[in-house]
Amino acid sequence: MTPVCTIEKASGIGLNTEFVRELFPVFSQEPDLIFFDNAATTQKPQSVIEAMNRFYTSSCANAGRASYRWSTQAANAIEESRKSIAAFLNAASEDLVFTSGATDSLNLLALSWGLKNLQEGDEILLCPQDHKSAVLPWYNVAAILKDRGINVTIKEFAIHEVGDYDLKTIKEAVSDRTRLIAMSHIHHVFGLDMEVPEIRQIVGPNVAISLDASQSMGHIPFDISQLDVDFVSFSGHKMFAANGVGVLWVKPSRQNELQTIRTGGGVNLTNTLRATFEAGTPNIPAIISLKPAVEFLSALGMDKVEAHVSELTKKLYAGLKDLPGLEFAPGPGVCGCPGGNGIIAFRFEQVSSSDLSFLLDSENIFIRANDHCLAKRGEGDDFMRASLHLYNSADEIDQFLAVLSENI
Ligand SMILES: Cc1ncc(COP(=O)(O)O)c(C=O)c1O
Predict the structure, then answer these.
(1) How far is it, in rounded angstroms, from Cα 194 to Cα 405?
(2) Atom number, ligand 1, closest to the C-alpha of residue 105
(3) Which end of the chain is more exposed for a tag (fewer CB within 10 A), N or C?
(4) What's the CATH code, domain 17-43+301-407?
(5) Which residue, by CA, sits nearest to atom 9 of ligand 1?
(6) Which residues partner with 112 through β-bridges?
(7) Structure pTM?
C-alpha cells in the first residue's frame, strides 16, 4: 500500500509577519533572531505573558480552595480556559483533562487506560520512530503488567521512506487482539500529517486510537468531530501558551474505561474527568495562558496559519534541494510534496549537523540538530530539523539559505 502525501496545502494566503512579530516581545528584544525550532516550543505573544503576569501580580490564589474572590476567580479562569481550548478543538469542555504537557497526557492515558483494560495476550501497535513520549509509556505499562503476570505484546509498525506511516505494516500488525494504536498526527521530525481515516479503516472500529497532536494543534485546523479517534494529547507550550500545561481529550464512550492513577486534593471520584484526574493544585497561570493563546490563533485564523507555514515550507524546500551534499530525511523533501507542515529535516555530507547548528547559532539562527527524541535512536538522529511557525518569514528563509550556502 503506497502512502499518500497529504500536505499539498492551500497556497498564497500568507500572514503579515511584520504585524505578527510585533505581538511577540521577544522579537523587539531580539530583532535579528531567526527561531526555527518551533516544533520544540514556540515564543509567547504579549497577551499570553500578560495573562500570566496578571495572575501573579494581582490575583494569586489557589483555585476554588477558598470562598474569597481571588480563589473563585482562579477557579473560574481555569474553567474559562477549558471552554476556550475545547472550542478550539470543537470538543466538549467536560471531555478534557488538564495535565502538565503532552508527555504527562500520554503517560496518564497509558497508565489509567492500559492498567485497567489490557489483558493477557492483548496487543498494542506503535511506531518506534515516533516521539519517545508517545511510545515509551506503552512499554512501561507492558512491563508493569508483566510483573503482574499479564503478557501484553507491543507490535511495531514502520515509517515509509517518504515519511508517512507505512500502512502495509499496520495492516500486517493488526489482529483480533489489537486493543490500541498509538500514532502521531504530524510527525515531529518527518513533518507529514498521518492518514487518520485510513488507519481507522485498517484497525476497525473497536481498536482505540491514541493521537499525539503535539505537532498539529495550533499548526493546522483541528476538528475532533472529523477525526474518529479515542484519545488526543498535546502541550500548551508548542501552541503559544505557557510551559507546564497540556491536555488529554477522552472520547465520551471511553471515559469509564479509565481508572484513577493519582489522587489527592481536589479529587472527588464522581464520574467527571476533571474531578477524577486533576489531583492537587493545578498550574493555574499556565492553564490560564491557554485562553489568550487560542484567542490569538483564532484571530489570525487557523486556515491562514496553515497556509502561511505551508508556503514557507515550500520555499525552504525549493532553496534546500539544490544545495551540494544535502540529503533530506523522510518528509516533504523526499515525498516531493509542494508544501508541508513547517518541518523539514536534512543533513549534509560534508559537515555534521551539530557543527552546523553551532555555526548557525553564531548567526542568530536557532535550529535543532541530533537527538530528536525518536523512541528508537538511529535513523533520523543525525539530521537537523528546521521547524517553522506563523512569525517566520520568507526573508528569514532567504537569510538561512544564504548562511547555509556560505558554510557548507
Ligand atoms: C510529537 C511529540 N509528542 C510529544 C512530545 C512531548 O511534549 P512535551 O515535552 O511538551 O511533553 C513532543 C515534544 O517535542 C512531540 O514533538
Answers:
(1) 32
(2) 11
(3) N
(4) 3.90.1150.10
(5) 103
(6) none
(7) 0.95
